[in-house]
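Quick start: what a row looks like.
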Amino acid sequence: MTALPAPRHDSTLGILCLCAGLGLFSVQDLILKLLSGSYPLSQAMVFRSLTALPLLLLLAARDGGLRTLFTPGTNAMIGRGLVMFVAYAAYYLALPALPLATAVALYFSAPLFITILSVPMLGETVGWRRGLAVLVGFGGVLVILRPGAGLFEIAALLPVLSGLCYGLSMIFARQLGARESAAAMAFWGNLVFLVIATVMALGFGGTTAPDLHPSLAFLLRAWVWPTPLDATLMAGCGVIAALGLTLLTQAYRIADANAVTPFEYSAMLWGILWGWAFFAEWPDAVAWAGIATIVFAGLFVLWRERLAQKGS
């Protein structure tokens, strides 16, 4: 089978793809938080994945043909899909229990994890300044988590797990991007989502216990026949998933990670906006301090990476 040509390197297009993908996924976050009190996660993910499937097939057909879905790297793409599933499932399960802005902020440990993972997986070098900035960034994560405080919420660990797995999946995207299309990686990721969500529905669904933690209830709740509006919203998540996964994968496929990663923080603005507009949520002073620390540390890390590439 003929290998795909190397992707054209285009940092500007990669940044635009990333911002567009994150904007789309912020709408999905809003939808899932709205639905999380009435439906189980598996139902929303099955609806989403089924809707996305034909769209991803169409995108694959336009991006080199359906033959690009079946390559020697198929198993690696499925493996990446498993990591992506853990990333998104952990994040979604946090939404019922946390303010949206808090979940997004904790998820933004992802760029810090990308920096750490780039050393063993991409052979990059991280100097002491960037290493210190990463530690400061994780200090911001601890500020938001508030371990040992009365305000600590166990579900707050879920977005951090999501950030780790997301960072790992983006490193995989960079490794696979030279020989696999963005549409193919998104297709296999979506198929993994569909299969695992179906298994979850068969194995976990059915509880009606009223006193469960909101995250556990979202995981274990029985399927409910959706209203027409809710069914449309779930299906809309499929359209968002198809386009968003492709855009995010394409961003890291055609541009250097340190060029596009600073723009991951645009999602934080959407999280704060949607939380304020729909749920009357607004970060308190401590949360703002943690958010600012994470953003500062992440941007400093990326700035130092650029200087290192220029030989400074």
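That is the whole record. The first helix runs from residue 11 to 35. The chain is about 70% helix and 0% strand.
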